[in-house]
Amino acid sequence: MPSMTRIGNSDLDVLPLSLGGNVFGWTADRDASFAVLDAFAEGGGDFIDTADSYSAWVEGNSGGESETIIGEWLASRRPQGVVVATKVSQHPEFAGLSGANVRRAAEASLARLGVDAIDLYYAHFDDESVPLEETVAAFGGLVSDGLVRHVAVSNYTAERIREWIDIATRLGVALPVAVQPHYNLVHRNVVEETIIPVAEEFGLGLVPYYSLASGFLTGKYRTTDASGQSSPRAAGAAKYATDAGLRVIDALEEVGAAHGASIAATALAWLRAQPTVVAPIASASRADQVPDLLAGARLDLGADEVALLNRVSEWTPAAS
Known about the structure:
The chain is an alpha/beta fold. It has helices spanning 30-42, 65-77, 99-113, 132-144, 158-171, 189-202, 234-238, 243-257, 263-272, 290-298, 303-312, and strands at residues 5-6, 13-14, 18-20, 47-49, 83-88, 90-91, 94-95, 118-123, 148-154, 176-180, 205-206, 281-282. The chain is built from eleven helices and twelve strands.
């Protein structure tokens, strides 16, 4: 059995891989989503990440589709010990982080998910139009009222995370336990210089998204030309296929080969080896992609292998 990981200062222990729900109701319909969730749970996965806005960007969708599918799966399968994280601020009907909106959005998410309490509730994007004190108090109220177990922040700067913690401490409400930044082998600098130090100082767990750089770190995009790709993610991945980016892929392939592991599993293992990282988020639109992701939760790289990947990926910000 792989070791479980504690999410920051919470009481949540999870397998160190979070299944991204952004594709449910988008590139994975209900049946495909159920198959992915089944494969994840059967493989020992127990941490699912979604947001109330997934996937409002798809024509014909209105937001909440991912939560609805996850809720139907939870009701149908009744898995034990699954931790569900969701987020507020981007749903078309529940935009922003005013106190009243946070409460209404949480109630809507609870209804879609069909759970008694949200295990981990993120402020999805900072909303500087609302006093941070109002948002922090609203999140604190959700915890004290039992609607949410733990609070967290996503896409916040280090300065604003620090401010949130100061306010929560002063108000005597629940402190955040996790932070969700964009972090991977080809997008390192900002997180390592600013977010990880704050996470270390306050005992926050990092739950990185875009762990596989929109699929680039699976190794299937080895050219900057996305024209032949049908995937909606291909263009996002292709921008990383610079000389520097492809050197990272080659190094991942070399390190992974020593373990009989894929490029994707090795990229996830590298993330897990970084300070404060709890569980990288990775999504799958087909059940056959899931074992590779779970392998990334079980692969432990040696210090020399981590150092090699650190070296080859250092200071290679992707071309904008």
